Amino acid sequence: MRTVYVNGEYLPETEAKVSIFDRAFLMADGVYEVTSVLGGKLIDFDGHAKRLARSLKELDLKAPCTEDELLAIHRELVARNEVTDGLVYLQVTRGSAGDRDFAFPDPETTEPTLVLFTQNKPGLADNPAAKKGIKVISLEDIRWGRRDIKTVQLLYPSMAKMAAKKAGCDDAWFVEDGKVTEGSSNNAYIVKGGKIITRELSTDILHGITRAAVLRCAKEAQMEVEERSFTIEEAKEADEAFVTSASSFVMPVVELDGAKIGTGTPGPVAARLREIYLDESIKAAV
Ligand code: PMP
């Protein structure tokens, strides 16, 4: 049985409890992070901790502890659950004021809720999907306007994954005003004439930690990067496409709305970036 963390305690997962009045349960008033674990070490921890701090600040949510304490909790859970390859899920909520009310409770008297748990994913970096590539559909982006904050409001992304599954595909790319914003749980890229194109950072997309690291790798490898939005039509005409996230690293996209991208097989740019990113991030893992 897994050991999980709830508000200062390490407990068997069946004994961990959060109030029914917790604002994440009632209002989706919470933020989260997912950090991958490879070889027992945390990938891009610093980036995830910094983004968490930003999400908390944007929502006027109190930080439950320091970054050093968070790192210690991550490490303790990885050790206790003997995770070699997998994920650490973290969630901070505005806590429970013991009743339901739209107004935020007083942070002096209502402590944030902090929950962490691990997920074992043996062979996470050798996911066979990376060799085959994934198929995506496009869907209208009807999420709220602050997608740069990593909130737990994941109903529409869940619906998008279900729509993709129903269409015999793996995931969805969201489209707003004719341009791709991002994937349902990843950042989206196309490659044309050797150039890597991905939407610029704004409140329209999540500022992916993997995105930042992969773009750094691309620039170090002298690959050309252009940060701008693109259309589904442009993506269909691209040489390659891929997505990035903490749990999938760099994942090739080989089909979009039923049309093959490039040769319909994973392209060399995505493969190279996956290799460089995994290599560099494993070296820097903590
Ligand atoms: N966009 C969205 C909407 C996401 O949910 C995620 C994954 N949490 C990402 C992008 C990728 O972010 P990261 O690389 O930090 O996992």
TrEMBL record:
Copy the pathway line from the protein's UniProt record: Amino-acid biosynthesis; L-valine biosynthesis; L-valine from pyruvate: step 4/4; Amino-acid biosynthesis; L-isoleucine biosynthesis; L-isoleucine from 2-oxobutanoate: step 4/4; Amino-acid biosynthesis; L-leucine biosynthesis; L-leucine from 3-methyl-2-oxobutanoate: step 4/4
* Protein's UniProt keywords contain Zinc: no
Instruction: State a single Gene Ontology molecular function.
Output: branched-chain-amino-acid transaminase activity
Q: Which reaction does it catalyse?
A: L-leucine + 2-oxoglutarate = 4-methyl-2-oxopentanoate + L-glutamate; L-isoleucine + 2-oxoglutarate = (S)-3-methyl-2-oxopentanoate + L-glutamate; L-valine + 2-oxoglutarate = 3-methyl-2-oxobutanoate + L-glutamate
Q: Which InterPro entries match?
A: Aminotrans_IV (IPR001544), Aminotrans_IV_CS (IPR018300), Aminotransferase-like (IPR036038), BCAT-like_C (IPR043132), BCAT-like_N (IPR043131), Class-IV_PLP-Dep_Aminotrnsfr (IPR050571)
Q: Which GO terms describe its cellular component?
A: cytosol
Give an example GO biological process.
branched-chain amino acid biosynthetic process
| Cofactor(s) it depends on | pyridoxal 5'-phosphate
Give the EC number(s) under which this enzyme is classified.
Answer: 2.6.1.42
> Which Pfam family, any one, appears in the UniProt record?
Aminotran_4
Keywords, in A-Z order? Amino-acid biosynthesis, Branched-chain amino acid biosynthesis, Pyridoxal phosphate
Q: Which domain of life is it from?
A: Bacteria
Listed SUPFAM superfamilies:
D-aminoacid aminotransferase-like PLP-dependent enzymes (SSF56752)
Q: Which NCBIfam families match?
A: PRK06680.1
Q: Which family does it belong to?
A: Belongs to the class-IV pyridoxal-phosphate-dependent aminotransferase family.
Explain the purpose of this protein.
Acts on leucine, isoleucine and valine.
Under the heading PANTHER family, the entry gives: AMINO-ACID AMINOTRANSFERASE, AMINODEOXYCHORISMATE LYASE
Under what name is this protein listed?
Answer: Probable branched-chain-amino-acid aminotransferase
